[in-house]
Amino acid sequence: MALMYSKGMPLGTQAPDFDLIATDGLKYSLANFSSASVLVIVFSCNHCPYVQATEDRFIELQKQYTKDRVQFVFINANDADKYKDDSFPNMQARAALKQYPFPYLWDSTQVVAKAYDAACTPDIFVFDTARKLCYNGRLDDSWQNSSKVTSCDLARAIDAVLAHQKIQFKVIPSMGCSIKWKE
């Protein structure tokens, strides 16, 4: 497991569009989320222990913020030929098992992950209504143990974007497994 940190896409960057199939069999692009006040794109996968330790928190945040028109989207870009746990059928099984309340998209060509300059899983990108980047940082301050979280940075960032305010705290990069790039 190679530990990586998010690179910090420049604030204000326009969300790169995509056209990806999801575990529900439908294709999604940015246009599918046009009614969302805040769009949270998370580069994820099935096998990463950082994702496994935090995915229930992402699920709860989606449920908590649905009424505020906040939409989460998970995208898996890992090389499924080398990492079988991250294959599309296994993504479908994971989404069903965890009952993801958000789309889980497959970036089989890795074009989307490269467009976002994603580096790790989870790598979190928060976009405002205009789809300008407002936050690229960590979920919270205790990826290993949810009972020890004292700062839910992602929730704070979402609250700021919903209030049309700038992030007023030190942004700490997300960390996790490296995205498994194809050769």
Model description:
With 183 residues, this protein is of the alpha+beta class. It has one domain (3-23, 36-178): 3-Layer(aba) Sandwich (Glutaredoxin). It contains 4 helices and 10 strands, in the order ββββαβαβαβββαβ. The longest helix is centred in the first third of the chain and has 17 residues, at 49-65. The two termini are 18 Å apart. The mean pLDDT is 96.
Largest sheet entry: 7 strands, mixed
Mean pLDDT: 96
Number of helices: 4
Low-confidence stretches: none
Give me the secondary-structure category.
alpha+beta
* Global shape: globular
* Overall radius of gyration: 15 Å
The largest sheet has its strands arranged as 3-2-6-5-4-8-9
CATH structural fold name: Glutaredoxin
Give the DSSP E fraction (strand runs of 2 or more residues).
Answer: 15-25%
Helix share of residues?
Answer: 10-25%
Order of helices and strands: EEEEHEHEHEEEHE
What is the CA-CA span between the terminal residues?
18 Å
CATH architecture: 3-Layer(aba) Sandwich
Let me know the number of strands.
Answer: 10
Look at the structure and give the CATH class: Alpha Beta
The number of distinct structural domains comes to 1
**CATH homologous superfamily annotation:** Glutaredoxin
